[in-house]
Amino acid sequence: MILPDAASSPRWENGDRPALEEAITAAGFEVDIQNAQGDTAKYATIADGMLTQGCDVMLLVDHQGAAVAVTEKAQAQGIPVIAYDRPIPGADYYVSFDNFTVGALQGQMVVDGLKENGIDPATATVVYIGGDPADGNAAMFHDGAVSVMEAAGITPAAEPPGKWDGDHSATVFEQALTELGGSVDAVWAANDTNAAGVITILDKNGLTVPVSGQDASVAGLQNILLGKQTGTVYKPYQVEAAAAADLAIKLLKGETVTVEKTLDDGTPFIASPPIDVRRHNIQQVIDDGNASYDEICAGDVKAACDEVGLKPAS
């Protein structure tokens, strides 16, 4: 398995790696998980090494299209490829969360936040800060979010080029905010990392507006508790990892795989449902073991945790 990086989200190393290692090892198979660290050349080198050494199934999280060539090489050797979390053209299977629904939940956060502030979505100034266009999921998040926001009458006041990077998001959002005369009513941010970048600029300008997110990262959950972020889309990595591990094990054993959904290109799609997390249900993330009370409720966040009634996992 090849992970894309550690920068776009903490989930890859903190969530997916241990969950997949545990599930596949428990089934009696060896697993080799490496991280390309955001380098497409390194991604290709890792893949070549794995294919030379020999493997029976490849799980790939794409990084800027690097997985496409790897998929072709693997399939030429008769090795099935599972696209994990991010779609890969030509992959044999795709295992992920329902990413259109992820976006729809984000869009609803924006709409809810505007209405709570007494602002008509149809007249609101909303900036869109999306993900990396090279990531197939980014388009699904966008389409899901837009489906909800457009239905509420929202049109983007600005939509700068996206990237899975907090610093980049801060830079382009600050430029957009300046062009809008320093006024904004809400921000659709495609994940918590991008949301954090946006929030640094909002803080700098003394603004607090609805901001969406994704990944239920510690920083994202803290921003929700502090009232700086409306919510986050929680994707329990264990669920996705278990589905991928189950599929990989069936392929290794030569068992029949039945899949009900497909992507538009016909790729069999095993989808898991995402969860909308706001202040009132952050406890679920802690109880699932995907964030610790001590990490979330450190420093100036402690008072907000007490207000909500958060506690360590039992």
Report a brief summary of the structure:
This protein has 314 residues and is an alpha/beta fold. It has helices at 11-26, 40-53, 66-76, 99-116, 136-151, 166-179, 192-204, 218-225, 237-253, 283-287, 293-296, 302-308, and strands at 2-3, 34-35, 58-60, 81-84, 93-97, 126-129, 156-158, 186-189, 232-234, 261-262, 268-272, 275-277.
Describe the model.
The chain is α/β, with parallel strands linked by helices. It has 2 domains: 2-98 and 236-273, Response regulator (Rossmann fold); 99-235 and 276-308, 3-Layer(aba) Sandwich (Rossmann fold). The protein has helices spanning 11-26, 40-53, 66-76, 99-116, 136-151, 166-179, 192-204, 218-225, 237-253, 283-287, 293-296, 302-308, and strands spanning 2-3, 34-35, 58-60, 81-84, 93-97, 126-129, 156-158, 186-189, 232-234, 261-262, 268-272, 275-277. Strands 3-4-5-11-10 form a 5-stranded mixed sheet, with helices on both faces. A hairpin with a 5-residue loop joins strand 10 (261-262) and strand 11 (268-272). Helix 1 (11-26) packs parallel to helix 9 (237-253), helix 4 packs parallel to helix 5 (136-151) and helix 6 crosses helix 7 (192-204). The longest helix is centred in the middle third of the chain and has 18 residues, at 99-116.
Which short descriptors sum up this protein?
314 residues, alpha/beta, Rossmann fold, five-stranded mixed β-sheet, 12 strands, globular
